[in-house]
Amino acid sequence: VHGESQLSSRDLEIRRLQTLLEAASPSTDTSSRPFSERLEQLSAQVDILTKENIRLEEELTSSRRGGATKDALKAENTALLKTIEGLRPVSYTHLRAHETPEHLVCRLLLEKK
After folding, report:
1. C-alpha closest to that of 14 among 45, 57, 55, 35
2. Dihedral of alpha carbons 42, 43, 44, 49, sign
3. Tell me, what DSSP letter sits at residue 31?
4. 8 Å CB contact between 58 and 12
5. How far apart are CA 79 and CA 71, in angstroms?
6. What is the pLDDT of residues 7-39, one digit of tens each?
7. Cα of 12 vs its chain's centroid, Å
8. Which of 32, 34, 55, 85 could form a disulfide with 27 if both were Cys (CB 3.0 to 4.6 A apart)?
């Protein structure tokens, strides 16, 4: 919502500056130097605001997509928590009772070190 209001206010400013540029008419005498400088300044401001608008629009689009990702991650997190809650601890003796010969060889080799 905040990003949308920033975009809206920047759009208004761009339109205002463009209107100033279009309404301005350069004088033909040589003393129009300040006018041309002001015209360049306004043009530069329009360019800066246009670029900033593009950046904000991309950021807003990205954050909207991020909301869907957040929801998916939240659902996945909930499912994982339910799975973890269903697990129960077992004793070392219980684990050893289910040890396969391959596991035993690996464990004995590791204990040697």
Report:
1. 45
2. positive
3. G
4. no
5. 12
6. 788 888 888 888 877 776 555 444 556 777 878
7. 25
8. 32
